[in-house]
Amino acid sequence: MTLPLLAPFALEFVQRGMLGGALVAILCGVVGTWVVIRGMAFLGEALAHGMLPGVALATVLGLPVLAGGALSAVAMSVGIGALQRRAKLSYDTSIGLLFVSMLALGVIIISHSGSFATDATAILFGDILAITQADLILLGAAAALGIAVAIGFHRSFVALALDTRIATVLGLRPRLAQAVLVGLVTLAVVASYQAVGSMLVVGLLLAPAVAAGHWTTRIPTRMLLACLFGIAAVFLGLVTSWFAATAAGASVAAAAIALALFSWVARAAVATRLSNRSISAFHPMETTR
User: Fold this and answer.
1) Is 101 exposed, middle or buried (0-12, 13-18, 19+ CB in 10 A)?
2) Least enclosed by CB within 10 Å: which of 116, 127, 235, 261?
3) Structure pTM?
């Protein structure tokens, strides 16, 4: 007998959506942990919007939208580094300038197209239920690449998070590590586009990592928990979307935020309970009065 909550997963397109979303959640869990630790949320948001002109232009020209979005996001990543080096602008200023520029260009392209409303909705909010077998292969490759790079540069990322001078002394090349980390964020944003769209990708990138951070300070454990929280968000989002007739991508992002809130409340409750037990242990007489 099939449980009511599992009924939607009898359909093949929902199964593909769940599997694709799980792969995105794994990639975002690994990369999002570093995004939260390094305080790179603004970069993730900017790259998500930086995809917009490439995706819009690819849609208008009938080209693969994922390729257009990837090229646009890569161009923005390179542009941020160029503004820092050549124009001597700060990191957040460089991101802010390119963020506004790319977003404005994307809106101009969208507004110039007469019949672009449906495509714009898919661009902004994703269509996780439209994931195909080919998309699953790409997502699997992206997740594998992201995990491999995170493992290979783990020591460099840790040193970079502690102090760039330490990374330099240890010969871990902090500039290269920063560039690779930006590349990982770009990979996660581009890969997540199909599932939740450019507007909601940051929710899936940040919320599971934030939820996991309430329970552990060890980076590998935090990544694992973030992946599990992300997969749970995909499941809850798809179930909510099916029974409440809501947008699937937005439901997944909302579920991720809800899990982060629930994790915070649960952790606070556990901490309060442990604190009360400690007080009772030090003052046993007071508890019997």
Assistant:
1) middle
2) 261
3) 0.84
